[in-house]
Every structure is written in C-alpha cells, then in structure tokens.
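User: Here's a chain of 215 residues. Predict its fold as tokens.
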Amino acid sequence: MSKHDRIKQSHASEPARGRQGWTAGSGGSRGGLAWWGAALVIVVAVGVVLVMALGQSGKSAPAGARVSSGLAPAFSEQDVYSGAPITSAGLRGKNVLLFFSEGVMCQACFEQIQSLQQRSAELRKRGLTLVSITTDPPDVLREAVSGYGIETPMISDESHAMSSAYGAIGQGMHAETDGHTFVLVDRRGRIRWRKDYTAMFIPPNQLFDEIPTIH
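Assistant: Prediction complete.
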C-alpha cells in the first residue's frame, strides 16, 4: 500500500470513530437525564402528598373530638346582647338546639338564624330553644346581632372554651372558628343528635326534617 493510500485510509477512519464515540456518549446522557427526571417526579409527588396530608390534618378537628352522644359538656356563658346568663344548668328541663357557626364573617350563618326565628312556631311546637354560638369578640358580635335583628340567645365564645368542648372548632373552612354545626340537647342534658354541615345555609324545612323529635 502506498503512502498516499495509507493517509487516505487513516483520514477515512477518524470520523467513524468520532461518530461512534458521540453516539455512545449521547445514549449515556439520555439515560442519566431519564434517571434524574424519574427521581425528581417521585420527590415532587411525595411532597404533594405530604402537603395535602398536612392541609387536611389542620382543616378540621379529629372525629373523636366531635361530641355526638352522652352527657352534653357543661357551660356557663351569657347572652351577648342582653347580658343574661346562659348556662347548661339553667337550660335543664328544655330541649335545646345549639347552633355553632363561623360568625360575623358568614352572612349566610346569620341568615340561618333569621330563618329559624321566622319559624318560631315550629320551634315552640317541638319544644326547642335555639341558642347560637360564635367565636367573635362580644362587641363585634353585639353589633351583628343588632344589625340582623337577632332575638334568640347568642353567645360570644371568644375563648373557644364551649366550641372546643363540643368539637365545633375547625369543622368549617377556618381552623380557628366554628363550622356550621347543630347539636340537639334534651331536657336531661344529654346529646340526642348532632350534624356538621358543609353548606353555610340549610333550608329550615330540610333542617326540621333531619332533627329528631324528642319529648
């Protein structure tokens, strides 16, 4: 083979080795990127699951805290507007419908109280005394009571003591306020029915259908 032929053969073989080397390197890079991509997807997915779990854990009180039977927790409060005492002992002998709501931030909650006041004849027929509770400060709640024309007893549970005792805190959209919870306490001070509603307004007819009749 002449010198010219050897040089020609050498030049022809170099690009082939170069292309082969790049092809192998290219495959290796794609494999590495694929591995890291899969790992990143897993990490993100785990993070999303943890965030969702933490969000749900702070959304509402644990099921065990939702008092739904047995002797109703005792309380000693007062009507935010009149200042008259409202206590569990003083309500003995009456069937009491406790209504825990989000308070002044929830217009529908006050409309709920108004709608039940308008059905006072139905409440009397069932022997029910309506008592509403929010965690609003007394002065703020007093103004709302006046503005909405609320005449039934209203408690300012700013300390969260009563709401916590009945497991009403965090049952709605906010962890620091009550949700939309009704608790029926009989004449002997025992809980006979409870429901935590997700809707902010329950039509009175629906509510009266769901509340059990007790004597």
